[in-house]
Design goal:
This protein is an alpha/beta fold. The chain has 2 domains: about 130 residues, Alpha-Beta Complex (Aspartate Aminotransferase, domain 1); about 240 residues, 3-Layer(aba) Sandwich (Aspartate Aminotransferase, domain 2), CATH 3.40.640. The protein is built from 13 helices and 13 strands. The strands form 3 sheets. It has a 7-stranded mixed β-sheet with strand order 2-8-7-6-5-3-4, with helices on both faces. A 4-stranded antiparallel β-sheet has the order 9-10-13-12. It is globular and about 65 Å long. The mean pLDDT is about 95. The structure holds pyridoxal-5'-phosphate. The site of pyridoxal-5'-phosphate has 13 residues, from helix 4.
Length: about 375
């Protein structure tokens, strides 16, 4: 059996994933050691509470945090963060959610931090109180939103957030002076590995990371890092307990896979990894940079946590739109997924090297070159 035979059997065709670890395009590729750990773990049974507590401790050690616990993706982590903020370790409240009668259930969020995944916070019954403007917000505005009904603050760390809002450390000072937690979503902010402790270092009580993006753990996994007491509240409000988050269970095999993936991820020479990606992306840029009407360059900054080949269509571009180009890349064989940025309108597309396998870099670069050139010729 091979992956190819499985999809042949189902009558679907494979994609080369040059767009990054996007869930709709099947995430990232676990390393062989991770798959081996999952297979090995299928041979033993354990008490899941013991496993989750021990695995959380291991992740805390590996990442340099006070405490950690495993969730079903970073999204699952957001659900559990909200439940923890509302119910803490009170069994009555834990089992009452998502009905929040008599429980403070408001999460204060800066308007510039609203994001496509933030409704996960509302799953266990929380409500948002939005503050500020889409472009900015002040500490006073956040303070003015605190009431008897406040359960905590939500903070996003992502290339997609507004950069001008209240910084995390100032939010933490405000929240803690009112005895409220700061719940942070840092799902995709890895690498750099230093971010594993950056937000907890700034005082966030719980920070959610994806296990299925650059860490290359099982696609369904994620983890929370944070303060000991808050990690314990999170664990109590999470599967396998019969709570609002029970549907988000993570199997022992996935837990073993995530542990191995984090071990490997934290052990890698980040500089060597970055130069390899940079070299690959330089190759892509070299193949297309002379095509008239485009700008192509390697970008490695806040928006792109590993080097990406970013392509812009200039005003004098005579070919198709970003979406038409990406569609063509994906529709015709060999099918290649590339990413178009929609913030707020399509204004660039990029190649992300994370998921490229042996031999695929050349295929992607050649196809992109051909599609771009045909795009001009065809108009
Ligand atoms: C990817 C992402 C998520 C979802 O993470 P999963 O691990 O796929 O559940 C949530 N928030 C942000 C900011 C993300 O980038």
């Amino acid at each position: 059996m091979s992956g190819q035979s499985i999809i042949d059997n189902l009558g679907i065709t494979k994609l080369i994933n040059a767009g990054g670890p996007n869930t709709k395009h099947s995430g990232s590729r676990p390393r062989p050691e991770t798959i081996r750990a999952m297979k090995a773990m299928s041979e033993v049974f354990v008490d899941m509470e013991e496993l989750l507590i021990a695995a959380g401790r291991r992740i805390a050690d590996l990442t340099g945090n006070e405490a950690a616990t495993i969730t079903s993706g970073a999204s699952g982590g957001l659900v559990v963060q909200a439940a923890a903020a509302m119910a803490k370790d009170d069994p009555e409240r834990i089992y009452q959610l998502p009905i929040t009668d008599g429980i403070p259930n408001e999460l204060i969020i800066q308007r510039g931090h609203r994001f496509i995944y933030d409704h996960l916070y509302l799953v266990p019954g929380a409500r948002f109180v939005e503050v500020g403007r889409p472009t900015d917000c002040t500490v006073d505005e956040l303070a003015g939103a605190i009431t008897q009904n406040t359960a905590g603050f939500v903070h996003l760390e992502s290339p997609f957030k507004e950069h001008l809002g209240v910084p995390l450390n100032e939010l933490v000072d405000l929240a803690h002076s009112h005895n409220l937690p700061v719940l942070a979503d840092g799902a995709s902010m890895l690498p750099p590995r230093e971010n594993l402790t950056k937000y907890t270092g700034q005082g966030a009580d719980l920070v959610s990371f994806s296990g299925g993006k650059a860490i290359r753990g099982p696609q369904s996994t994620g983890f929370l890092v944070g303060k000991k007491e808050w990690i314990e509240y999170a664990r109590l409000n999470n599967a396998p307990n019969p709570v609002a988050a029970r549907a988000q269970k993570v199997s022992k095999e996935e837990i073993a896979g995530l542990l191995t993936a984090i071990e490997l991820f934290t052990d890698i020479d980040e500089e060597a990894e970055t130069s390899k990606y940079r070299e690959q992306m330089n190759f892509v840029v070299d193949q297309i940079v002379e095509i008239p009407g485009i700008t192509a360059k390697v970008v490695h900054n806040y928006d792109h946590y590993i080097p990406h080949a970013v392509i812009r269509l200039n005003n004098d571009w005579a070919g198709h739109t970003y979406e038409e180009i990406a569609e063509k890349m994906k529709r015709t064989k060999p099918r290649v997924y590339i990413r178009v940025d929609h913030r707020p309108h399509p204004d660039r597309m990029w190649i992300d090297p994370l998921n490229l396998q042996e031999g695929e870099l050349e295929i992607v670069a050649n196809k992109l070159r051909t599609v771009l050139i045909e795009s001009i010729d065809g108009k």
